[in-house]
Amino acid sequence: MKSYIISNSKSNPFLKTLYLQNFLFFLLIQIRSCFSSSPTPFIFPLKTQILRSPSNLQFQHNVSLIVSLTVGTPPQNVSMVLDTGSELSWLHCNQTTRDNQPDPTIFNPNQSTSYKPIPCFSPTCVNKTQDFPIPPSCDSDNLCHATLSYADASSSDGNLASDTFHLGSSGNISGLVFGCMDSIFSSNADEESKTTGLMGMNRGSLSFVSQMGFPKFSYCISGSDLSGLLLLGDSNVTWLTPLNYTPLVQISRPLPYFDRVAYTVQLQGIKVSGKLLPIPKSVLVPDHTGAGQTMVDSGTQFTFLLGPVYNILRREFLNQTAGVLRVLEDPNFVFQGAMDLCYRVPLGKTRLPNLPSVSLVFTGAEMVVSGDRVLYRVPGEIRGNDSVWCMSFGNSDLLGVEAYVIGHHHQQNVWMEFDLERSRIGLAQVRCDLARQRFGVGL
Questions:
Q1: Which residues are catalytic (predicted)?
Q2: Which DSSP string corresponds to 186-248?
Q3: The pLDDT of residue 178
Q4: Which residues pair with 90 in a beta bridge?
Q5: pLDDT reported for residue 248
Q6: 194: Cβ–Cβ under 8 A, 6 or more apart, which residues?
Q7: Distance (Å, rounded) from C-alpha 166 to C-alpha 173?
Q8: Average pLDDT, stretch 27-41?
Q9: Closest by CA position to 43, among listed 169, 136, 152
Q10: In what order do the strands lie in the sheet with 393-395?
């Protein structure tokens, strides 16, 4: 049939035009199918970096989730903090090397032949940075200059660029945009310098996952050794417990305190040992300024609640632990500037007593925080023969943060799926160490 159409189209202009139209139509279908097909899934081990932060620093994290990969041509090893609360991925850049030796905490753009700086008048700099909290600017070389600042008072400063990111033996992604930051400020610089940069994973157009075009990604953090895995792409695993999904909240109009590209869900209530707390629904929804959104953030360690909700939870947890735990009677001690419900636990005690569980209730899903995860031992804090443990929920108001933030401490042993295609987050209680074994992910 094909040869018949071709031979006749040579003598019939109408058939020739029809054939060309059909050919172009089917070619377009093939091209679309190629571009719309999901990228090959990639699996990475998630490693844990424990930071020895002074306990009096506000909004500091003691644990970060680290992804290791290679960037550039030839490839340079980098380690990046997994952060679903940020958009732009960035690397600490330096155009020199120490003693001519590679430094795994620094990316050298001069040693990569595929590195390309981005001009400040390019479409990438002008159009794709609209959700940056601080708009980019032009530097003296007319390159796109970005300044990033974070809630823990850290910041980074540098130029936008593109390079090849290597995601395994068969995954080379060329032209991925990131920040090449030559100026890094952190209140805990010695510890933060152990990583090369940050992997931004929110819904912004320049986030790592958005540029890669993955319809979804997932991660799982073990509660035993805090190791885990990151899955870019669709898991399609039959052994995984069915996920409960909660929709992402989206507000299209700009509001001063609402992050439109964050993973925002609707917090419906909080339970302590199954008891639903008397929290007014009005304080759980964003107000007319956008304050009060609930964000799922892997770059934050603990969970922070707005003052009125935190106080209700604090009061109930204190009541249910009366006679079980000894309260730390020190009004001047507030862990990380936001956690003021702390306890004294004897140093020789190997196990904590049975603790009340805390459940975060979302639309269609629930995150249960139980066992030792409800408390957190403050590093290096000793009172007599006692260690100090604090409730692992903090007061956002004490930090000046106008939002509820669900940190990764409470996501341990929870399969977290971020479904970008259907605008939802899936949750399921799993043993993340076993899930890592199932995927054959070593550390």
A1: 83, 297
A2: -TTHHHHTTS-EEEE-SSSTTSHHHHHT-SEEEEEE-SSS--EEEEES----SSSPPPEEEEP
A3: 97
A4: 179, 198
A5: 98
A6: 49, 79, 105
A7: 6
A8: 44
A9: 169
A10: 264-265, 293-296, 403-406, 303-305, 393-395
Token pair of 287 as six digits? 């107000």
Q: What is the DSSP letter of 42?
A: E
Contacts of 21 (CB under 8 A, 6+ apart): none
Using CA atoms, how far apart are residues 140 and 124, in angstroms rounded to an integer? 18
Rounded to the nearest 10 degrees, what angle do helices 13-36 and 2-9 cross at? Answer: 130
Inter-residue contact 380 to 398 (CB < 8 Å): no
Q: 3-state class of 36 per DSSP?
A: helix
Distance, CA of 285 to CA of 420 (rounded, Å): 22
> Measured between alpha carbons, how far is 60 from 301 in angstroms, rounded to an integer?
8
Give dist(CA 232, CA 215) in Å, integer: 9
Residue type, 340: D
pLDDT band at 101 (very low <50, low <70, confident <90, very high): low
What are the catalytic residues?
A: 83, 297
Contact 69, 44 (CB under 8 A): yes
Token pair, residue 301, equals: 């360690």
Using CA atoms of 151, 155, 160, 164 in order, give the dihedral in degrees to the nearest 10.
-80
DSSP 133: S
Question: What separation in angstroms does the CA of 98 have from each of 76, 95, 104, 105, 227?
Answer: 15, 10, 11, 11, 31
How does 163-189 read in b/e, with b if 16+ C-beta sit within 10 Å? bbbbbeeeeebeebbbbbbeebebebe
Average pLDDT of every residue of the chain: 84
Please name the residue that has the structure tokens 């929920």.
393
Asked whether the beta carbons of 136 and 129 are under 8 A apart, the reply is yes
* Rounded Cα gap, residues 217 and 233, in angstroms: 5
* Helices and strands counted in the chain (H then E): 8, 28
Helix (H, G, I), strand (E, B) or coil at 358: strand
Mean pLDDT lowest among 79-88, 151-160, 242-251, 297-306: 151-160
Structural domains of the chain in order of their starting residue, each with its CATH number: 42-213 (2.40.70.10), 244-439 (2.40.70.10)
What was the pLDDT predicted at 203? Answer: 95
Question: What are 52-80's pLDDT values in tens digits?
Answer: 443 333 434 456 889 999 999 999 999 99
Least confident of 107-111, 151-155, 177-181, 217-221: 151-155
Residue 13 structure tokens: 């202009």
Tallying the residues shown for the chain, one arrives at 443
